[in-house]
Design a protein that fits this description.
By secondary structure, the protein is α+β, with helices and mostly antiparallel strands. Helix content is about 30%, strand content about 20%. The protein contains three helices and five strands.
Length: about 120
């Protein structure tokens, strides 16, 4: 299967170089991307604590652990296709915003949940 992502896409956007995303997470996202058959644009991947605070992330954000990404999804068709791919792969922690879909694999948090951002 084609590898759709480059490692730098997951790195902290502040430029600090932090990029602790796990290989399994990347592989599962790659599979979901293959199923969805549309690009997955990573709006936010890994975040260092300072960047997480600047962007208003929660102190317990899974982004800081390399276990979460926000994927651009700004219309209903892309949201549906991305969600379909994520669920088929087995992702069980998904947040939906009007412009992105958050997905994480943080096992310290409840599984089989989907939430809306306001």
């Amino acid at each position: 299967m084609k590898q759709y992502f480059k490692l730098h896409e997951f790195a902290c956007k502040c430029g600090c170089g932090l990029n602790n995303v796990t290989d399994q997470f990347k592989e599962d996202l790659n599979t979901a991307r293959h199923i969805a058959n549309i690009p997955f644009v990573i709006n936010s991947g890994v975040r260092c604590p300072a960047h997480n605070k600047r962007v208003g992330g929660l102190p317990s954000s899974s982004h800081q652990l390399g276990l979460a990404v926000d994927i651009k999804a700004d219309n209903s068709e892309s949201r549906f296709k991305i969600m379909q791919g994520l669920i088929q792969v087995g992702f069980s922690r998904i947040g939906v915003h009007k412009t992105f879909i958050h997905v994480d694999v943080d096992t310290s948090k409840p599984a089989n949940v989907m939430w809306l951002y306001r």
